[in-house]
Structure formats: C-alpha cells, structure tokens
Design a protein that fits this description.
This protein is mainly alpha-helical. The chain has 18 helices and no strands. One of its GO terms (cellular component) is plasma membrane.
Length: 422
C-alpha cells in the first residue's frame, strides 16, 4: 500500500492522447514510486531496532531489513503490472503471479532443509518477488528512461494523491477496531472478532477478486463513452450478484453451522460477526464496490475519500462508546455501520456516474427474487432442530431452490451457456 502511492490507479484510469504522453507519465510514475519505496526502506533501515520491538521480534532487526528489500522490488513490479492491467494483458499477469508465488516453494524448502531456518522464508519470498519483477519487465515491455517531467507530477498526483489517501483510509477502516478491542473486551474477544471477520472477508473478497482487475481496466477505458460505460457496469454487477447475493444471505442464515464447521465448537461466539459481516460485506461486493470503482474510473477519487472518512468517523464514534456495551451489541452495531459505506457509494455513484440504483434493481431482479425465496427456505429449515450433518442437506436444498427459481425467471440465459461450456 505505502510503496504504491496511487500511481497504479492513475495509470489504469487515465486515457493518454499520445505515445509520448504515455511514456512520459510511465517514467514519472516509475521513478516517483521507486523514490517513495527507497525512502520507506531507508526509514526501516534506520529504525530497524524500534520496528523489530514494535512487531514483537526484538533481536531480529537484521531479518526485518532484509525482508524490507521487497518494498523497492514491489514498487517496480507494481508499475509494470499496472501497465499490463491497462492493456488488459491479464493472461501474462496471471502467469507472473503464479510463478512469483510458486518460486518460494522451490527455494524455501531446500534452504530450510539446509538449516537456514527463518532465513529460508525471507530469502524465498525475495527470490519470488525478484523473478516476478524480471517477468514484469519482459511482458509489460516498458523500460524506464533517464528522464523526468516534473510538470506532469502535479497532474498525476492530483489523482494519485487522493487514491493514496483512500488506500490509507481503507487500511484504517480494516484495522482500527482491531487496535482497540483488546483493551476493551480482552484478547479472547479480539480473537473472536478478528478471526470471524477475516474468514468472511477472504471468502467474500475472493468473489470480487475474480473480476475486479478486468472490471477496473475495462470501465476506465470507456469513461468517456456513457453507453459502453453503463453497459460494462451493469453487466459486471449483474453477473457478480448472481453469486455474491445468495452466498452472503446463505452465510448469514447458516452462520452457526459455518462457524462450527470452519472454526470448531469453541468458536461458536464468533457466529454473530461471521453472519453479520457476511450480510454487510455482501452489500459492498454486490453493489457498493461497483459504484466505487466507477467513481474512480470517472476521475473522482476525492469522493471516495469523503465516503471513507464518514465511515471512519462512525466507527470511531462507536468505539468511543464500546466500553458501555456488551461485545455482542458491539458486533451487531459494527456490522450495521458497515452498511453505511455501500449506501454512500450508491448515493455518490448514482449522481456522479449517472447510473441509478433502480437500473441495478431492474437488471438484478432474478437473483434478488431467487435469493429471497432461498432465504425463506433456509430460515424455515433452521427452525427445525436437525443433527449437525443435516445442515449440509439444508444448504443443498437452498442451492437447488435458488438455481431453479433463477433459471425460470431470468431473461438472460448466457450465464448457463457459460457453465455448460465449462
């Protein structure tokens, strides 16, 4: 996050008028990004003993410094990856990511057997990122020149600066509660909250990751063509919500079963955050994130900062009163506040992108109806006390109900043709 500074977002979002402008912008982004990463590395190097104590690894300051070499490496790779994303070159980008993640397995295990201990993990990760950087240069085809047009930095940073601030706020939104809960409710409550939320975030966000890079690049390309922009927006949103809506609602209904299945009986208290966060995050994945990416593609990252600031203020307000409420009440309130973020994204996006929420409802009505009926079946099935294993059958029934109803009421059969070919 810190080594990026929003330049990736600018490269993907901005439409260049000439190859000369493109190369000039790429150079400015590359060298500025590398400079920021180098400064960060220097800060870590100088304060390595302090940072090692802060992360609970006192005495391992040298390991921290070596591991920090990944910052300048990734700052270089990130610009090359942004260029490939802009060119919709996702096949090669996927290959690079697979190789950079697979290489550490080939290096870490032999080094560990040779007795290098924790150094094997550090060196393995560095080798993987370094090879990924080399492949990025090869496939992206951009090699930085020894030139720097400082006049372009101002126009670039007018966008990337807000994108950078947005990423910082996103980090705060994800971690501010984790930084304070232990002192209020204790370590056990923090563990329940963190594990439950992280588990659901990984599941829900995996859906978003399936299309997000393609969607961001494609919609940025069509930012000046309203008809194509709107078509891309509604198409991606429609197909995403086919999966995300029933998954989120189903997770909420079967929260107790899913928590016990994935975490064990000792984690039953985490079910409230598992279910509540799944429900709230689904609204973001199905609706809010699409408007958020569309707002950024239109060149309004400042509005996203405003949305996140409102959300952050609400979380801080909740945390200030958390000592006066039970942990259960806090979890429910925290999930309710999460809904504010996609709501604001919809309100801002509808106005800035001129795509009303009613148009989303019009295109998404089959999955909304199918999800509603599925939810009724799921609730009725949960009213009956079944053995633990019978919940698998209940989930299977819900899936069949959803697919059947969606199949008969959707006017678009393209999604089923895709599944048949697969």
């Amino acid at each position: 996050m810190l080594s990026d500074a929003g330049f990736n977002a600018y490269i993907i979002q901005h439409q260049f008028s000439s190859d000369k402008e493109k190369k000039s912008v790429f150079n400015v982004c590359f060298w500025t990004n590398l400079l920021i990463a180098t400064i960060l590395f220097a800060v870590i190097l100088i304060n390595r003993h302090l940072f090692s104590r802060l992360v609970g690894a006192e005495g391992y300051s040298n390991v921290l410094v070596v591991a920090a070499f990944v910052i300048p490496i990734m700052s270089i790779s990130s610009i090359e990856m942004a260029i490939m994303k802009k060119d919709l070159n996702f096949k090669r980008l996927g290959f690079i990511k697979i190789v950079s993640k697979f290489i550490p397995f080939l290096t870490t295990i032999p080094l560990a057997f040779c007795g290098f201990g924790y150094w094997s993990l550090v060196v393995g990760s560095l080798i993987g990122e370094f090879i990924g950087m080399i492949l990025c240069f090869k496939f992206a085809g951009f090699y930085p020149a020894r030139e720097y047009d400082i006049s372009r930095l101002k126009s670039i940073f007018s966008f990337s600066g807000w994108a950078y601030l947005e990423s910082i706020l996103e980090w705060l939104l994800s971690n501010i509660a984790l930084l304070t809960l232990a002192s209020i409710y204790g370590i056990a409550a923090l563990g329940l909250f963190k594990v439950g939320m992280n588990m659901i975030s990984q599941i829900i966000n995996s859906i978003y990751a399936l299309y997000s890079n393609v969607y961001k690049s494609a919609i940025s390309r069509e930012q000046y063509d309203y008809a194509k922009f709107k078509k891309l927006f509604l198409t991606f949103q429609n197909y995403s919500s086919i999966i995300s809506l029933p998954l989120g609602i189903g997770t909420f209904i079967y929260r107790d079963f899913i928590t016990t299945l994935l975490l064990g009986k000792d984690w039953s208290e985490a079910s409230i955050i598992v279910g509540g966060w799944a429900l709230a995050a689904t609204l973001s994945i199905a609706f809010g994130n699409f408007y958020s990416d569309a707002i950024r593609a239109k060149g309004y990252p400042k509005r996203l900062v405003q949305i996140n600031l409102v959300y952050l203020v609400l979380i801080i307000f909740l945390l200030s009163f958390s000592s006066k409420m039970s942990f259960l009440t806090f979890c429910i309130a925290f999930c309710c506040i999460k809904v504010i973020q996609p709501l604001l994204q919809v309100i801002y996006g509808s106005r800035l992108c001129k795509i009303s929420f009613s148009e989303i409802l019009k295109s998404s009505y089959p999955q909304l109806i199918a999800t509603s009926v599925m939810a009724i079946f799921g609730i009725l099935l949960n009213l009956t006390s079944f053995p633990f294993a019978m919940n698998f059958i209940g989930i299977g029934i819900c899936i069949i109900v959803y697919v059947t109803i969606y199949y008969f009421i959707t006017p678009d059969r393209a999604i089923f043709k895709v599944f048949r070919r697969a």
